[in-house]
Amino acid sequence: MRIIHSEDHRLHFPQAELSGGQFVTPFERPSRVEYVLNRLKERGLTDIVAPQAVDMTPVQALLDLGYLEFLETAWAAWKAEGMAGEIIAANVPARGMHMDRIPNNIDGKVGYYCHASETAITQGTWRAALSSVACAQSAQRLVAGGADHAFALCRPPGHHATADQYGGYCFINNAAVVAQMFTDAGAGRVAVLDIDFHHGNGTQSLFYDRSDVMFASLHGAPQDAYPYYLGYGDEKGAGAGEGLNLNYPMPPGTDYATWGAALDDAIAKITDWGAEALVLSLGVDAYKEDPISFFRLESNDFTDAGRRIGGMKLPTVVCMEGGYAIEAVGINTVNVLEGLQDA
Ligand code: OKP
Ligand code: ZN
Q1: Which of 71, 89, 101, 283 could form a disulfide with 321 if both were Cys (CB 3.0 to 4.6 A apart)?
Q2: How do the domains of the chain map onto residue ranges?
C-alpha cells in the first residue's frame, strides 16, 4: 500500500490548546506523524511518497469560498490588528444572534468561522492544511487509477471541518474532498466510513442531503463526547440523502464487542447500498488508553477492524484523522492498514 506524506504538516503546531481551563500542549501534535512513520517502517511499509500539488478545484466546489479566503488570510489580518498571540476564537454567534452576517473585524470573523475554541490557527496553518488535503488527493488519484488502497497520512485531520467552520483540530475536510473527487470522476455511490472516536460532524454536514455519498460514523455519544451538538442516532440524512447518514453513538466504556457489532452493521449497509468506493476516516482514538476518549479498544482490535473493512473489497482511500495515545498511534494505525491488506 502506498503512503502519502508531506513534511509540511509541521507548519501547524500551535503553542497551546485550551483544555480544562488551561493552556496545554496540543494533543494533536506533529510527533503523532513520527510515530506512524516509524511503525510503518518497522512493519516494512516503506512505499512512502510526497503528495502532488494540491488541486483547489474540488476543494472550492465543496467548501465555502469565503471560508477558504478566511483561512488563507486570517493570520495576516490577525497580526495587522496587533494581536500578540495565536488565533483563538473568543466569541461565537450563539442562540438568538445573527448566524449569517459576517463581521469585518478579524476577531469577529474568527468566531464566525470557528466551532470550537480549543483549535488555534498559526502562521503556518493554511499551508499545513493544504499539504494535508494534497496527501488525500494524491491517495485518491492512486485508488481511482486502480490501486486497491492508499493511505494519506493527513495532518492536520479533517473530519470536524464543515463547509465554513474549523474546529476539533480540523481545517479542511480531507476525507470529504476525496469523496467529492470520486463523484466528480463519475462515481454514483461513494461511502465515507468514519471510525475515529469523535463524530465526523463536518463530513456528515457536507453530505447530509446528497444521494451520492453515504456517511457512517462510529463515535462517542454526543451527550458525553465532543462535538457534543451533533452525532445522534436519529440524524439519518435529508431530502435526496434521506437514509444515507448512519450514526452509531456509543456510551463511555464501549468495548470491541459492541463497537465491532456497530462496524458490522455499517459495513452491511455500505455493501447493500452498492458503494463503488470507500473513504475511511481513520482515527485510532477508540483505543483504551486514548487521553481524550472513552472507548476500550485493544491494539489487536484495530487489526480485526481493518480486516472487516477490507472484506468489503472496495477501492479504499484511508485518511488519517485522530489518535492521541502517542506511542500507540503508530501501532494502531498500522494495524488497521495491515488488516485491510490481509482481508
Ligand atoms: C479531533 B479528532 C481535550 C478536548 C478536545 C476536541 C477533540 C477533537 C478531536 N480537552 N476536544 O476527531 O480526533
Ligand atoms: Zn477523534
Answers
A1: 283
A2: 2-15+24-63+123-342
